[in-house]
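Human:
Class, as today's exercise, you are to examine the entry below, and be ready to discuss the fold:
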Amino acid sequence: MSARTSLSSTRTSTLRQRVVEELRVFWLTALYLWIFLGSFTIYRRLVLAETGVTYLHYGIALIEALVVAKVILVGRMFGFSRRFEQQPLIVPVVYKSILFGVLVMLFGILEHVIEGMLRSHSGLSGLRDLASLGFDELSARVLMLIIAFLPFFAFYEIGRVIGMKKLAAMFFQGFSSVSDTRD
């Protein structure tokens, strides 16, 4: 086998590993967010049921989880979330939680503008739809995401520092296997 073929297969293998890792991170992120957002959907349904209002928007939590997970991956790809990684862990955890909460809000605004442009050829109609939700609803959604991101990024940062394999071993295999796990 030539050096060129060997280099090509190494690049392909490395690219394949990166794609698999990114997909794994995407699906784990989406699962976490779906559970979190889904619990709020159930909470909203239960509260509204007390007043006689039917609420059946369960699929929205899954769609939002998938979109937010994609926003996180795109944000990680651009690298601006690495700003405070040398600080005590609380700093990058809070920074990333707020940063990605704001990013999700901005992507939501952009999504409504594009949807308005596609639906009625005016980005303003999408913004009007967004404004109809009200400032309180929008603020509550962003706050809820920031709070959801705190434990998410705390685990992520701990895994970044001690190694994801070691963190997973601590959670799923017990402490006896942690000393044997190397990243």
User: Anything to note?
Assistant: The chain has a mean pLDDT of 80. The chain has six helices and no strands. The chain has two domains: 22-64, 79-183. Residues 79-183 form one domain.
